[in-house]
Each structure stands twice: as C-alpha cells, then as structure tokens.
Design a protein that fits this description.
The complex is a heterodimer of chains A (about 120) and B (about 220). By secondary structure, chain A is mainly alpha-helical. Chain A contains 5 helices and no strands. Chain A has a domain of about 80 residues. Chain B is mainly α and about 220 residues long. Classes of the chains: A mainly alpha (about 120), B mainly alpha (about 220). Chains A and B meet through α2, α4 and α5 of A and α3, α4, α8, α9 and α11 of B.
C-alpha cells in the first residue's frame, strides 16, 4: 500500500513535474539534489530583488521552478508587490488614511507666516 | 528668383531663432516662473497630500506633521531656487522626500535596527522541516492586475493596512528600499546597518506583506 504524502500538493499546483508518475518523481529527485530547497529559494528570490544573482544561482532557481510552482508564484508575488508599491499614488489616498486636522493646518500656517514675515 | 527664395528662407530661419531665444531667455517670463510664496494656499492645496505621503512612510502622525512643516519651511526659504521646471506640488514632494530620508538617517544614528526581535525568523511554520513549502499554505497564483485596477481604492486600503501591520523597524527599512527606491548601499548607509542584516529585514518584510495581502485581498472572498 503506498504511503500517504504528509505534504500533498494543492489542486491548483501547475508545476511541470508534480511527481504523479515514476519518471516525474525521478526528475524531481534529480532536480532537488542540485537546486535549493524552498526556504532557501525564498531567501534567494528576495535577495534577487536587490542584487543581480550569480548566473548559476538564477539557473538553479529556474530549475527549481520546474518542480515547484509555489516558489515561482512567490517570485511573481514579490515583483507584483514592488510594482504596486512604486506605482500607487499613496498621497492621493482618501481621508481614511489620514488628513491634517484644522488645528494642525492652522498651526502650520502660523509657523509659515512667522517664517515668511521674518524673511 | 533663386536668390529671393534663398533670402526669404534665411530671413524665416533668423526670425524663428530669434523667437526661440526670446521665448526661452525672456527675463519677464523667467520672473513669472519664480514662485510667489503663499503659505496659506500651500497648506490648503498641498497640506493633506504631503501629510499622507509622509504618514505612509513614517507611520506616526506627529512625526509626519513635523516633516510636512519642515518641508514647507525649507520650501519657503528656497523659493528663489524654484526654476519652474516642475509643478509646485512635485517640487514640494521633492523637498519632503529629502526630509524623510534625513529623518531616517537621524533615526539610524539613534536606534539599533539590528536587534534580535526584528531578526528572528517567524516564518518557519510556512515550511516543513526539510525546507519545502507546506503546500497547503504555499503562495497562491494572484492574477493581479485586472483585479487591482478594477478596485483601486479598496486595494489601496488593504495595502495600507498591511503596511501598517509591519513591525516598526522592519517597516522603515522596507519603506526606504521600496518606496523611496534607495539602493541597498544607500539604505545601509542611512540606517548604519550591514548588508546582511538589511537582507534579512527585507526578506522578513516581503514575506509578511505578501502573506497579509494574500489573506486580506487575493484569498479573502474565496474561503
């Protein structure tokens, strides 16, 4: 009787090799020997957002993605995060995020008028 | 005939160049682009925007207000340097941005950014002991753009909520790198931290933010 997988892949897993056949499992075993595990891969992916990774490391990550769509998604998610953070017009958010109280505005105006008068 | 045509072309060329010269070097026009400081209008027109910009980055209302005030004062003192090449608001944002980086620089001198609390790895539960993802909790396929564009303001609120949940020190490191778009070297110099520590903190902030956004936006309606 086959052993139950303690960490089964989810139904939305779209990795190229999912270990469903004997051959696929052998390919995964082979790739796993040469590529980083997911925890290390996530560190490398984050590092890759800040520095260009060595070519060999990039190749290993690509190879890892063949067996692990989760790490590939992790990289896509981080890239999306960067894109959205840098493109959202934060200052144009609505008042729920924050706005100067009338008192704060008055205080600001007073400070500026004083400085302007002095100048 | 050829001579007349050539003379006309020459005259046209000369008058066009003269017009260009007058347009770009006209002292009257130059005077018009110089900013006339109007503190009350500045606060009414740009105060809230600048405040929100600062608040998202420094996360403390009092500090954000102080930075906005400092930016306005600096703008007032340097009105004569305003060349009119950008809009008044962009110019004020530029000044505020510098003030925010100065604030972080000062904070870096006064606060330790590398304590154990901020470096502990609290994401170990995402992985099994061998280092693979716990597949059931692994990252989901976000299919983001259309959804974000359709619900821009709600997405904005979720994102803001997630950013505000980040631990303070981690958040500051993240803001400098991702929002102010400083290079890793500049962030390390500003906060006086090592590149290794920066890497760990950025990793942690990205993991937390990704997780929060997935739970509160991309997977919210699905469960």
């Amino acid at each position: 009787m086959p052993e139950e997988d303690p960490n089964p892949r989810t139904p939305d897993d779209d990795s190229l090799f999912q270990g469903k056949t004997w051959l696929s499992r052998r390919v995964i075993d082979f790739i796993n020997i040469w590529t980083p595990r997911c925890q290390e891969a996530t560190h490398l992916i984050s590092e890759g957002m800040d520095h260009p990774l060595p070519r060999v490391t990039r190749f290993k990550l690509r190879a890892h993605y063949l067996t692990c769509c989760y790490c590939e998604r992790f990289e896509k998610n981080l890239r999306f995060l960067r894109w959205v953070i840098r493109s959202l017009p934060w200052e144009n958010g609505d008042a729920s995020v924050g706005q100067l109280t009338p008192e704060a505005k008055e205080r600001l105006k007073r400070a500026l008028r004083d400085e302007h008068g002095r100048g | 005939m050829g001579l007349v045509e050539a003379s006309l072309t020459f005259l046209q060329e000369i008058s066009f160049r003269l017009l260009l010269t007058v347009y770009f070097f006209n002292p009257v026009a130059a005077k018009e682009t110089q900013l006339k400081p109007n503190p009350d209008r500045w606060v009414d027109d740009h105060g809230d925007c600048l405040y929100r910009y600062a608040l998202v980055r420094v996360r403390t209302p009092e500090v954000a207000q102080d930075l906005v005030q400092e930016a306005f004062l600096a703008a007032l003192r340097s009105c004569d340097k305003y060349a009119g090449r950008s809009s008044e608001r962009s110019w004020l944002f530029g000044i505020l941005k510098n003030k925010i980086v100065d604030y972080y620089r000062k904070l870096g001198r006064e606060t330790s950014f590398t304590d154990m609390e901020s470096l502990s790895d609290e994401f170990s539960e995402k992985f099994v002991s061998e280092g693979w993802w716990v597949h059931a909790n692994g990252p989901k396929d976000w299919k983001p753009e259309p959804e974000v564009l359709a619900h821009r303001s709600e997405f904005w609120k979720t994102m803001h909520h997630c950013l505000s949940k980040l631990p303070d020190r981690i958040a500051k490191v993240f803001m400098l790198r991702e929002m102010e778009e400083l290079s890793t070297k500049e962030v390390c110099k500003t906060l006086t931290i090592s590149e290794t520590n920066l890497g760990v903190m950025l990793y942690r902030s990205r993991m937390a933010l990704r997780e929060c956004l997935e739970m509160n936006w991309f997977e919210k309606g699905k469960k």
